[in-house]
Fold these 3 entries.
Entry 1:
Amino acid sequence: MTVACPTWQDRISPLFDAATRLLVVTLRRGAELRRREILLGPLEPDALARSVAELHVDVLLCAALSEPLLKALEKRGVRVRPHVCGQVEKVLHAFCCRQLQRDEFRMPGCWGAHPHGGCCHQKHSTGADKRDQKKTQTSPFK
């Protein structure tokens, strides 16, 4: 398995879209086989996702990323674990030990592990919610 982390000063970079370094680690049964650091230039989301996929990255551990970049990565088969923070070595160790759900690796404001990796306090609306919103929206110019 190949895991990638955007880095900044030995920590997970706050925004993958603006990251200048990507640590790429190949693992087998939790043991590190290979490690390399890739320098990233300013790229559009699709080009950045293509570059990550060409590195054969299976999982990207990151703090935040834009929706277009997330979709481009997922389209190329890269699984994204957002809202991850901390020192890179500790994050990689936690990933290998299946401990990323611990509080110390959650971005501030994330209150709990979300089953799909999304932000835990985002409102997930249902069809009924959307119908109720339409009913309550009125224009002052009627």
Entry 2:
Amino acid sequence: MAIDIDKLIDDGLTENGEVLHLKGLFLGFRGMMKLAQNPKLKTVKVLNISENQCGDEGSEALAESSYLQNLENLVLNHNDIGDEGAVAIANSTNFPNLKKVSMFGNIIGDRGARAFAESPESKKYEKLDLYKNQIGDEGYKLLTESKYLKNCEELEIYRE
């Protein structure tokens, strides 16, 4: 069964078009690719696409989207995203207004942490949530000592 992304967007979009909730729909990377190519995202400021099993490919598609210029808050929790997806999000210049990134509960390691720590794009973040990923001592040190994250008010990187 094909994913009707237009219907899902219409159902999940607030009336003013600024908040889109698509949590737990298991869109996968193909659904995420369709979403990223949809012009209805132009007005979205808050995008919650947690629990969609998008993986690295899905987050890479979002990072390449030309329709997320107004995005301020990106929630990608529990999506099986690893280092490749984190690198794509961290280095994307397609999110000029992005202030909050939540990638809680993925499989991001030190390489993904390094991307956020070393990306000039990170300097605009108020919140970066990488809680419950696979970040080791190196990644932890890079994030906490990053010159680009020094003004980040909420840096969540607790490990178990």
Entry 3:
Amino acid sequence: MSLVSVIMFLVGALLGVGGCLLIVRQTRSESSIEKQLRELQEEFTAYRENVNQHFNQTAKLVNDLTNNYISVQKHLEDAAESFAQPPKSFELNPEETEALENKKEEFLSLEIPTSEEDEDAQFDSSGAVEPPKDYAPKAPDDKGTLAEDYGLHESAK
């Protein structure tokens, strides 16, 4: 009986080891799922961090752009003010100023002088402009090309 007991012991030990291996494999498969879940969470966290860094960098660059725009605008305003005032070397003495003012009167108007007849033809007594006239050749009782119903004929029934 001792041989049968040893064989039974070995069979029981083998069944116990087999059961333990099955349990360990199930635990390992669960841990691989947990490991995958952990990896996905870490990847997602890294992605969120990357997106946050991107938006922070974008906000910083936009703020820098705004500050640079303000600096350029101030520079242009200062330049406009400094260029609007003539330099001291352009200051004229009173004699030269009078000479320029006399010559300036010749160039006050750039309009071509017209006769009064032309002005009367263009404007009526209130100063309003007349509408264009229809100069297309036509019979006296025909409507001109500028008439609203020109070219609209009643269709023959």
